[in-house]
Design goal:
Length: about 220
């Protein structure tokens, strides 16, 4: 079977969506950039299947120029459009994790960016975590909103929906999604105490420079 290692890796991390409670039940989706029959594209989780039942042949390969699924017997995740568009717009993106994680979803319901109340926000690439405007799931409009919110970022919230993160591999993307969920959890706690103190723009510039080497240390 083509791309068997990548397919198994997607299944491994799909199961982690449930076991870590990053995305419960059938929610969320995962993809990996790949090539099949000389076609550049990506492998993505199928639509509607429980993660615990996934088999390598269930993972769907999509070409970057495809508007619909290829000849797989399974339908791709309904969110394939923003996966495709992230890969087309972010050359550094090799893997994508989309999750309906509880705290990120709760914060996203306010449709506002998460301000720099904590310096770890820099892990997403900017001095805040942007929130993509709401649009119906699976639509081209949602994909455009996500790409806009990911400008100079590697993760964002999706209004009334959840979060999405990408990285140089699945481990990196999954870890970033966990970081976003943890930051949003902390933010909800902070808001219970009132408006948190915000780190200055000047300080966040220093933090962003340091964050570039965060995982190298």
């Amino acid at each position: 079977m083509k791309n068997l290692d990548q397919r198994n890796q997607i299944i491994e991390y799909s199961l982690k969506l449930n076991s870590t409670n990053l995305s419960p039940l059938r929610s969320g989706n995962i993809s990996l950039r790949g090539i099949e029959d000389d076609t550049e594209g990506y492998l993505i989780t199928p639509s509607g299947k429980k993660y615990e039942t996934l088999k390598p042949e269930d993972i769907v390969f999509m070409g970057l120029n495809e508007e619909e699924k290829n000849d797989s017997t399974n339908k791709p995740s309904s969110e394939w459009r923003f996966h495709r568009d992230i890969y087309k717009n972010k050359k550094e993106a090799q893997a994508i994790v989309h999750a309906h994680s509880p705290h990120a979803t709760a914060v996203s319901s306010h449709g506002k960016s998460v301000p720099p109340f904590h310096y770890m926000i820099a892990l997403a690439g900017g001095d805040n975590i942007k929130c993509a405007e709401y649009a119906t799931f699976g639509t081209e409009e949602l994909s455009k909103n996500v790409i806009k919110a990911l400008e100079n970022r590697s993760a964002c919230l999706m209004s009334n929906h959840g979060q999405v993160a990408f990285g140089k591999n699945l481990e990196d993307a999954f870890e970033l999604a966990q970081e976003i969920e943890n930051i949003c959890h902390q933010y909800t706690i902070a808001l219970k105490l009132g408006q948190p103190k915000i780190i200055s723009f000047e300080e966040m510039k220093k933090v962003l420079d340091k964050a570039k080497n965060y995982k190298k240390g």
